[in-house]
Structures are given as structure tokens and as C-alpha cells.
Amino acid sequence: MKYIIANWKAYIVSKKDALLLLDKTNKAAKKSSSEVIVCPPYTFLADAKKMKNIRIGAQNVFYADKGAYTGEVTLPMLKELDIEYVILGHSERRGYFSETDEVINEKVKAALKAGLKVILCVGEKERKEKNVIPEIVAEQVRADLKGVPKSKLTDLLVAYEPIWAIGTGASDTPENAYQAALYIRKTIGDIYQNVKAGKSVKFLYGGSVNSQNVMDFVGYIGIDGVLVGGASVKYGEFEEMIRLVG
Ligand code: PGA
């Protein structure tokens, strides 16, 4: 079973558009045996939860449960809405909102402890050698997973999203994505000194995935799915991807 995850980012801003897209995605997901997950902005989470055939994720969460944190959304709030997944460490959070690996690590630990499944995003800004996944990716994985109990790894999905491939139309090659899967799984195996630990994590590729290239990525056994931004909010396009992956 593959994972097809929509990251709506802040592309959809009206309830009318959100409901239309949710309905289309929900209908496509009904005929699919993949795990279709939609991560809309917070304001559409409650509407999204009404859809029967898709799982729902938030795009971020704060690590403290409650308190004087103006503007934050916390884990008990997501739990009350019965949200299953949360995206953490997205490069747009790291870049525009200055989230460090320390902060991301706090969020990952808190979200897993609260029983959510975490979609952890990692990826380099640039690549010096074309087909070599840079060491920074392993550094991010090590820092973001610090103190995460091995028993929680089954609730972890790591999305490799090279920043240069996000929203650019220039996806990484499926071969490189597969190499990244091996590299990240080895890194996790090393952290826990247990090869099986690396294998228990789901691996996703993200960065300019669309209906033209999705099958090239999910065709690899080691690639469990895709995290899709721009193409997930285009009417027809995301449905087509769900149809293709099956
Ligand atoms: P993209 O974004 O599909 O628009 O490249 C992917 C992401 O940022 O998760």
C-alpha cells in the first residue's frame, strides 16, 4: 500500500474551494487502495474530517499542550478534532519561519507521544554532486529524531524533499529518491543500532511530483509514497494521481 499525501500549504483560502477539492479527492480515494492523506490549512480541518475515504493531517503543530503561546495550535486541539497525521519540519517552516532542528525535534517527540503519526520532512538546499545525497540530510534526521523511542518509529514517515525540487517543476530523479530512501533508512538504523529500525519507517519523496512522474517514484518498493504540494490543489490532477497509483 502506498501513501499519497496532499500538502495544500496556503494555496486554498476559501471554504468553497476547500469543500470542492475535498469532495473530489474523497471520491477519487474511494476507488483507491492507497492511504490518501490530505493536509489542509487548520481552518479546514473540521470540514476535512467529514470525508470518509481520506485521512487528515495538519501542516504544523506546537509542542506545548497549552499556555501563553499566542497564535499557536497545540496537540490537544488536533486530538480533539481526531487528526491522525501532522507534517513537521517542512522546508517552508524551516526557511520562512526559522524553525530549527531543535524546535522540530521537540515537535516530533510531542506529536508522537500524543499518538499522532508524523510526516517528517528533510532535504538539502543544494546538491554539489548530482547523484549524491548530501550529509546534511542525515544530520537533519539525527537531530530531528533525537530522543524518539524506537517503539514510535512505526508512526513515522520521512519525506525526502530536496528544496531545489519543491515547486520548481524540476523533480529529483526516482533513482536518487530511492538512494535517499536507502541513505535515510541506514541513518535511522545507525541511530538505533538496529537495521530493522530503519526498515520500520515509511519513506516518501516530495518535490514537483505530478501525474506525469508519480508512477516512476512509487514504482520503487523502497519508496512508500509521495508528498505532493502544487499538484494536490489542481482540480483533476490529484485525482488522476490517485487513480494511477491505485
Ligand atoms: P511541490 O511541493 O509538490 O509543489 O513541489 C511539495 C512539498 O512542498 O511538500
Structural description of this entry:
- It is a single chain.
- The longest helix is centred in the last third of the chain and has 18 residues, at 174-191.
- The protein has a single domain (3-245), classed as Alpha-Beta Barrel (TIM Barrel).
- The chain has ten helices and eight strands.
- It has helices at residues 15-30, 45-48, 75-80, 91-96, 101-113, 135-144, 174-191, 195-199, 214-218, 237-245, and strands spanning 3-7, 35-39, 55-58, 85-88, 117-122, 156-160, 202-206, 225-228.
- Helix 1 (15-30) runs parallel beside helix 10 and helix 6 crosses helix 7 (174-191).
- It starts with a strand and ends with a helix.
- It is globular and about 45 Å long.
- It has an eight-stranded parallel barrel, surrounded by five helices.
- The protein has 246 residues and is α/β, with parallel strands linked by helices.
- The chain binds 2-phosphoglycolic acid.
- 2-phosphoglycolic acid is lined by residues 7, 161, 166-167, 206-209, 227-231.
